[in-house]
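Hey,

Quick one before I head out. I ran the complex with magnesium ion overnight. Inputs first:
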Amino acid sequence: MRMILVGPPGAGKGTQAARLVETFNIPHISSGDMFRAEVKQGTELGKQLDHHMKLGGLVPDEVTIPIVLKRITQADTAAGFMLDGFPRTRPQAEALDKEMAKAGVALDAVVLIEVPDQLLEERAIHRRSDPQTGAIYHLKYNPPPAEIAGRLVHRSDDTKEAVDKRVAKYHAETAPIIPYYMEKGILKRVDGVGDPDVITERIKAVLND
Ligand code: AP5
Ligand code: MG
């Protein structure tokens, strides 16, 4: 299974990917997680990425594309992968197609998780993640256990200002890839509002269509 999860910031891509990769036994490749790991290491590249990410902008295509394409040619992706947060521009989508064509493989599905803009800010601002396990929590909808409260991380781009900019970027730069995948006949739309367990079932159902 080679698939992509697309959706606005806070749509639940990371939450759903963590569940689905267990079912399909494929690696979860999140460009955002890869970039945050680089920022944490404090490398020159990390500083450059942080500059774009913390204010809610996109990392330029010429930086993003080689990093992700390199990752999807690693040995653990031989049976497939779940991309989360890539592609998010038209040039990224075209570069992915080219790379996959070179390898003689193709995408099976692009799942679009749809959530209205007015719900996104609250989801992102109250998100907390556990750096030890990678688990994603929400202070209201999926509260973390009290004993790990001290180690939880609040992302630097989960401020109101940055989230508003990320949502605007999503509509301007990422939404145009939706018709691109519709034309290819592989776009599956899923309502991303509701209980996360129900949304996982909705995704599995559209993948079986
Ligand atoms: P990235 O890390 O990809 O962030 P994003 O797309 O903004 O998405 P998020 O991770 O914020 O949300 P999510 O959909 O994963 O939701 P989650 O499951 O956590 O990218 C970050 C930045 O990196 C970008 O802004 C850009 O700068 C850069 N970047 C990354 N990739 C790039 C690329 N390809 N090109 C250029 N730049 C790139 O859920 C959110 C919250 O909601 C959580 O608290 C969760 O518990 C809660 N929640 C989840 N599901 C539900 C539900 N059903 N009901 C209620 N709450 C829920
Ligand atoms: Mg995410």
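Residues 2-115+178-207 form a domain with the Rossmann fold fold (CATH 3.40.50.300).

Talk tomorrow,
K.
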